[in-house]
Amino acid sequence: MCLLLGVIIATFMAGREANPPDRDRETMSASEEQIQEPTGMFKWNDKEVWSVEWEGRNQSWILQRERAAAEESMLGSGWLLNGSKLPVSQAESRLRKLRELGQDGGTRRASSLSHEVIVGTITVTLSQLEEPEVFLIAVEPDHSEQVWILRSGDPLAYSVSKNAYLQLERMQ
Q1: What is the Cα–Cα distance from 44 to 36, expressed in whole angstroms?
Q2: Structure confidence by residue, pLDDT tens digits, 128-139
Q3: Torsion-angle region of residue 153: left (phi > 0), alpha (psi -120 to 50) or beta?
Q4: How many angstroms separate the CA atoms of 6 and 9, rounded?
Q5: 3-class DSSP state for residue 86?
Q6: Which residues contact 16 (CB under 8 A, 6 or more apart)?
Q7: How far apart are CA 90 and CA 111, in angstroms?
Q8: Nearest to 73 by CA among 132, 127, 131
């Protein structure tokens, strides 16, 4: 019996040494409110983007590749903003600012948001054939200066600067 107990303890200890505890995961388990380092939610290459639709509380816009440019190559240079031609540099700037928006703050469990109000959506399509990915923009009434972005199927809410969010919304 002592030999069996010794084998069990040795096996357990060997497993702990091979797989040390993940302090971040333990911290998150202890407190769902814990803010984590940002991991970024917008993970794409600009060349993959087919369209971005921004539906905000104050303003909406649609950025999309021109059909002819997209059919020739995803490297094509034609972009439209709300149906009007847009210089490539401005389209790339908008995409860069959108990606940076997801890197401003930390994360927390989406389920820990309290009475959040959805104030907008961001819909990103990476090709004509793929289903678009929809991100919800939320605020908590008691903390209206903090904006959160929620991605379908992701248990995390991503903190973003309200000023950066509003600046991107107002770009025309």
Answers
A1: 22
A2: 777 899 999 999
A3: left
A4: 5
A5: strand
A6: none
A7: 36
A8: 127
Phi, psi (5° rounding) for residue 12? -60, -45
Pick the closest to residue 172 from 80, 65, 81 (CA basis): 81
**Collapsing DSSP states into helix, strand and coil, what is residue 49?**
coil
End-to-end CA distance of the chain: 75
Distance of alpha carbon 144 from alpha carbon 116, whole angstroms: 10
Length of the chain: 172
Residue 160 and residue 128: Cα distance in Å, rounded? 28
Instruction: Give the count of beta carbons closer than 10 Å to the beta carbon of residue 112.
Output: 12
pTM for this one? 0.69
For the stretch 120-129, pLDDT in tens is: 999 999 887 7
Under 8 Å between Cβ of 154 and 41: yes
- Residue 142 identity: D
* Contacts with 82 (C-beta within 8 Å, 6 or more apart), sequence order: 61, 62
| Cβ atoms of 159 and 107 closer than 8 Å | yes
Please report, rounded to a whole number, the percentage of residues in the chain having pLDDT higher than 70.
Answer: 69
Q: Other CB atoms closer than 10 Å to residue 115's CB: what's the count?
A: 8
pLDDT at 129: 74
- Mean pLDDT, residues 31-49: 59
